[in-house]
Amino acid sequence: MRFNDIINYSSKEKYDNSYKLIVGNDYTVNVLKPGIVVFIGEKDNLGNTVIVQGNDGVDIWYSNLVNFEYGMYDYVSKGDILGLNKDDYFYLTPLHWAVK
Question: Contact, 53 vs 35, CB < 8 A?
Fold first, then answer.
């Protein structure tokens, strides 16, 4: 399911390695880059989190979400609806995939 591929937020602030984006209640969170869902679960200080491992090797964490639209190892495209924010904000954490 596709909706919008742009995140509209009223403000943002740095939070640990993430950004806290203020978006209002019941905001539909969309996938920023295509990839595979590699994690769904609780992360310390971030809440319910979905991690999408992008085709480009970059993992993006979407946190403080509910009502996930996808499951583990599902492929998601840019703009697909990932879920809804739990409060009036969600966390976005872009992390680079490290190969050792």
Answer: yes
